[in-house]
Amino acid sequence: PGTPILQTVAPLVRLLSAALWKVMKQRDVMQYGVLEKFVTSACETVPGMLTFRHQGKLTLGLRGRVILLTQPCYLLSI
């Protein structure tokens, strides 16, 4: 059955994961910062969940999408 703390935390993690999956599925770029924070926090909490390289690629990709889709004129002015 698990420890009381896990029984309390597990449903919250599932709910948050489902919400963030929806962000990804809908490509809600304005929420990618929240997703990046969750990935970073989860990787710090559960070492080995992602390799350092995969975590870096994921967070860099999220940041890149935010920049590309929220500041498209920036690339044209370079």
TrEMBL record:
<dbReference type="GO" id="GO:0042162">
    <property type="term" value="F:telomeric DNA binding"/>
</dbReference>
<dbReference type="GO" id="GO:1904356">
    <property type="term" value="P:regulation of telomere maintenance via telomere lengthening"/>
</dbReference>
<dbReference type="Pfam" id="PF14973">
    <property type="entry name" value="TINF2_N"/>
</dbReference>
<dbReference type="InterPro" id="IPR029400">
    <property type="entry name" value="TINF2_N"/>
</dbReference>
<dbReference type="GO" id="GO:0070187">
    <property type="term" value="C:shelterin complex"/>
</dbReference>
<feature type="domain" description="TERF1-interacting nuclear factor 2 N-terminal">
    <location>
        <begin position="21"/>
        <end position="68"/>
    </location>
</feature>
<feature type="signal peptide">
    <location>
        <begin position="1"/>
        <end position="18"/>
    </location>
</feature>
<dbReference type="InterPro" id="IPR039098">
    <property type="entry name" value="TINF2"/>
</dbReference>
<dbReference type="GO" id="GO:0016233">
    <property type="term" value="P:telomere capping"/>
</dbReference>
<protein>
    <recommendedName>
        <fullName>TERF1-interacting nuclear factor 2 N-terminal domain-containing protein</fullName>
    </recommendedName>
</protein>
<keyword id="KW-0732">Signal</keyword>
